[in-house]
Specification:
With 507 residues, this protein is mainly α. It has 19 helices and two strands. It has a single domain, classed as MFS general substrate transporter like domains (Growth Hormone, Chain: A), CATH 1.20.1250.20.
Length: 507
Amino acid sequence: MNLLRKRDLLLSLKNCTIESCFSVPMLNLTLTQFPFILGFAVAGLGWRSNAIGWLAAIHHLCNAIQPPIYWALRRRLSLHRIIVLGFWFNALPWFALLAFPVLGPSRDAVFATVVVIATLANSVGSVAWSAATGELVPIHIRGRYFGRRNMIFGFWTLVVVLAAGIVAEHYQSSMRVFAGIFAAGGIMRLIGLFFFFRMKFPPQVMIPQQQPDRIGDYLAVFRSRDYLWLVAFIGFWGLALNIGMPFYSVFILRELPLSIRDLTVFTTLASLGGLLALPTWGVLSDRFGSKPVLLACAFLWVASALPAWLFASPAHHVHLYLNYFLVGAVTAGFQLCQFNLMVKMIPARSKAPYISVFLAVTSLLTALGPLIGAQLLTHVPHQLGEFLGQPILRFHVVFVGSIALCLLATHLLHPMREPQERPLSELVRVMRTMREFNPVLGVAAVAELMFTPRRITQFAANSLRNLRKQTADIAEIGEDLATAGLNALRNRLGPDRDDTDPPPPRP
């Protein structure tokens, strides 16, 4: 139960958003399921497919092994303290990469060690963060709040990742430049920690657990039928998706006439798509429930990605720019609804065990994906023939097989029952009439196993209208950050007076 005063709650929600503007861009630079660090491993370190497979799996393996670590920490520490430790151990190891220029051959081992430590710290901290925000954010505004929050940090992620890619390309992917970028990411994470300290949480977040979780609390998860269907769907979706997705970067850098700058542009377009679509996903999830929106996002992802990667070749790759934008938009909705649905289906007093088991099981399944993909790319012949004048590479086989398995995984979500969910067909009808959705996104009708062709000119016109609609929201971000920073400095120099604080924002 949230016992904070309304004013404290609103200020905490605001600081939570500001913290994410520093932390999330850093995570997009350093977590191994994102393209930037995979691009560094390919272009900077020259790692091959097997090494890339293990690198992509590290994040999910760390999520899988975090339950006993989290359980041991929770017996002695509060959720707040665990989150703080997660910040420190996630940020500090990246400063070791400043020694890259003088390390020589040992840099591979140092890089792998840094990635494991930082990723494991983030995995443990994420469980505590999810439990803490579940206590902080009222359930009736979660969709709208996290939609707006994700939109705002998505903008800064777009800016930071794009700038990092341009700098890396300008300096020809040198070790010194990459080391500086990762160290700057560590600094951003620590700045995020400063704003996290300004948040106020309910008492149950700030004190050690009075009754430590028992093994039975974790085993109780496996008696919740609907929750297990959600775990199964997310786990097998992650497995299928990651058979191919970590190797998109490898394909782009090795098989297409593109560089790390182009990969950064792709990542930026994906962030932009998510930035524009997130507010609408939040509203839809509050209105129709997270499950139908999650299914719609899954179908849209398949419908967008399948033709894009099937026909990608050295002579035909311009369409990937549009694909990354569309996939970024639906991925943002998928991630938002996945988190909301996970929290919504958890009993009030069992948040941490449920979240911990959820991450462990889904991540263990997901970690198998890149390992399977790496083995396929290692043993399948490089070229298997031609189709419509373009070569069929082993990458095409892996990518198409991965996407087809994603489509099959959606059947695992249908048996799950979300409280007060609305029919998927009703959601699709509403989406078709909303100006926030480009007509190309009308392929949500794939939920009915149908494709609805639309004109590209109409898509462009609606995109521009949607971009203008979001401009006002984006313009507030810099002002919010500057105001919060100035007030933080004033509070450090003098007493914290209520009449000097800025007015609370609307969540």
